[in-house]
Amino acid sequence: MKHQQHLRAFVVALAPDFSAADEVMQETFLEVSRKASEFQLDSNFSAWARSIAKFKVLGLRRDKQRAASRLADDVVEALAAAAPPEEDDARHLAVIDALRKCLERLAPAARELVHLRYFGEHLPEEIARIRSQSVNAINVTLSRARLALRQCVENGLKNSEASP
Q1: Among 154, 108, 96, which Cα is nearest to 116's?
Q2: Residue 85 pLDDT level (bands cut at 50, 70, 90)
Q3: pLDDT (average), residues 1-25
């Protein structure tokens, strides 16, 4: 309790708002309680608690960024209302079929990255860590894979429209 004011000041300086700071403080105290047995009595408690708080703030920011990258409910509603009419379903199914075939033709390494990114919903930073590659290398490979898929799908659709 004697470190609470200093810890709160630290968290408020790092957190985006007071509500977030309150949340981080609660999470920090829960974590401190859970890890109390790991604390070394001869070490600096304030530094230990600040370290826990720092990771809680970073986690909160990461979670908020992920939430911000998702579509809001009203946007989803607007997109659903603007969806193309049912007569476009046949074209949509043709695109899906072409994409499936093009994914099968993609180089195995590129296919794996596409699956990690779009089916596994991993961010490029996570993929880079998983694959022990740089984020730039992952982004370049994904960009090339998307371009190859786009061209392959377009060609597949042209060929299917040209044949009777």
Answers
A1: 108
A2: low
A3: 76
